[in-house]
Amino acid sequence: EKIKQFFAEYEGRFNRSLQEPPTVDVQGVVKSFAPYFVEASPSGVHGGKNGWLFRMMVPRGFAYYKKIGTKSMKITAIDVTPLDDYHVMAKVPWDSRYLRKDGKEEQIEFDNLYFFQILADKPKIFAYITADEQKILKEHGLI
User: 69-107: per-residue pLDDT in tens?
Assistant: First the structure.
């Protein structure tokens, strides 16, 4: 239940950042991640500290999604797998909607895997795995 609540808030934050005017909850995003986290995709494995640079990048990330025409991000399910007493994995299918520059609407469905550590009843993302987002966005004429 903690993970489902986490993603309800996560999805809401993302969609509020896409509105006009956008509402970017930097603090909410920062609190969603562990002090250090790792991203893996076909472009490689990258790690980052949850610090001042991350805080600066959050609004830029949401601005990028707005710029390419992202209109909404909806979670269609959440499959949670407990790993031990303090860690879980969540497979999350997303349904994303876009408006291309030529006026055509696009829908892209994709799955992400998220890994959480839960301490003091607070889930924090410490790793996530994504598809090749840049390749998919190019294939759909968004970048």
Answer: 999 999 999 999 999 999 999 999 999 999 999 999 999
Residue 117, CB half-sphere, CA atoms under 13 Å: how many? 10
- Three-state DSSP class for residue 45: strand
Tell me the residue type at 50.
N
Instruction: Report the C-alpha dihedral over residues 123, 11, 73, 81, rounded to 10 degrees.
Output: 30
The whole-chain average pLDDT of the chain stands at 97
pTM of the model: 0.94
Q: Which bin fits 69, alpha (ψ -120 to 50), beta or left (φ > 0)?
A: left
pLDDT at 128: 98
Phi, psi angle pair for 55, to nearest 5°: -60, -40
| Cα angle: 7, vertex 10, 11; to 5 degrees | 85
pLDDT at 80: 98
Q: Which residues contact 39 (CB under 8 A, 6 or more apart)?
A: 45, 46, 47, 48, 127, 128, 129, 130
Tokens of 132: 């090749």
